[in-house]
Amino acid sequence: MPLVEDELVPGTVYILNEQDTVGGNYSRTDIILRPSPSNNPADPLRWPKWRKLYALSMVVVYSAIMGAVTNWDGVIYVNVLMEYNTTTMLLNVGQALLILMLGVANMIFTPLSDKLGRRFVYLSSMAIVLISHLVLALSKNISSYIVGHTLLGIGAAPFEALPAISISDIFFAHERGTMLGGYVFGLAFGSFVGPICAGYIAVNQGSWRWVYWWGLILSAAVLFLMFATMEETCFIRSDELSESSTTIPTTGIPSKLGVEENGDQKKADNSQVSDENVGEVFPVANFRFLAPAWKLFPGTPSDLVHKVWRPLTVSRFPPVLWCGINYGTCVSWLAVLATTVSEIFSIAPYNMKPNAVGLLFIAPLIGSLIGAYFAGPLNDKLSLFLAHRNSGFREPEFRLWAFLPTSLILPGGLIIYGVTAARGLPWIAPAVGMGMVGFGLSVGGGVTMAYILDCYKDIAGEVVTTIILIRNVIGFGITFGIQPWINGMGLQNTFVVVGLLSFVVTGFSMFFIWKGKDLRVITKQKYLSYHC
Length: 532
Known about the structure:
The protein is mainly alpha-helical. Helices cover 65% and strands 2% of the residues. The strands form two sheets. A two-stranded antiparallel sheet has the order 1-3. Strands 2-4 form a two-stranded antiparallel ribbon.
């Protein structure tokens, strides 16, 4: 049967072979692999499932540890204040600079990962993290504390952007939401379990400085594991195998490769690796321990410079701008919790010790676990269901329906936390609010990343870096200004306003459900010019 082709908008992909569906239903065998795997044995898309899951587990562990060490010292604020005889405002300067560097440093690290490989950036940035922990553990005054946090922000920056890019390197479009949900949960797990651990470390090991010594130990362990077993996932894919192709056949498309579960050792008869080699079997490159620290990819120095500045230009894409603002506010609310929880619960009427303050973060941890499942596997299933109703075509905006309940849950949690803590209600009341915020953080991070990668997959580095940059500039401002804000308006009123802001930003997803495809049409030519 001849192929019938439709002109498509980048981001719109034919992902379900509707011709093979039975009785209006579909199964996994009807799912078409996007992007298409190449014939190159080194293509990460051809890896067997165990190898992909191991790479994912490395990313999740890395994100969890970095999430912990960049968030866990909020519970020892009171200890640091007494040691340095300083102010909360100056401590927030260190935290705000950390958040700012988490965004700005990715303007260098992400393009570098396209030139020297993901592995090089992971390893080199972790070395900076080790140095930052030495500075913090040995710091003698507030100035060295601020310097240490700035270095930590630079070194930990890749954990905010590179894991999402690595996941898009090795998983197909229909799997992306689930795997990104795992990454976001790892990030949230570290962010919430970290303060719990930090509280017990500070109390049981006699000094708050042990929080940073343990950060050094854990970061060194992750660096060793990455050096020994992390594989390179960056791969240059030809245009005809990318997700940016504007002509996608709508009939006669082969079904899902049998290779996905077991690598390229077996292949379904109707599988397609490339137009030129239908049915040909190619081996997968072997797993390699102690791989080279870097791998040189094509591109000139001027290409690298252009990629450094490109995030400032792709911010003109409306979906990228909104995703940055939305993700930025979601994570900023986590920073607000981290910087206020110790001050609120260490004094009357709660009078909690650091370890008890840390235990409060169990609530957002539970919320983030539920949110990760909601934003990952459930959202992937919803996207496939809506693609089935759309003649097999998946639109990125299908993912945004997850923001409907989140636009109520996240603001509600912020208001509950602030109002109940301000009124001195039992600790369980603000803890419930923290749990709702944890849910919103997981959904906000997972869905935002999956949506923007679905929209602009072939410039993943640029769009993810832009989102993280916008996100962290917002986080910098909110973290820097939250204490004066609370001092001026009071705890209750501040969190009521914060909740309303959260509702407006998250609820704006409805506009993108309505007009998102039209906006992708407008940015189509510019996107294709970047990709080509």
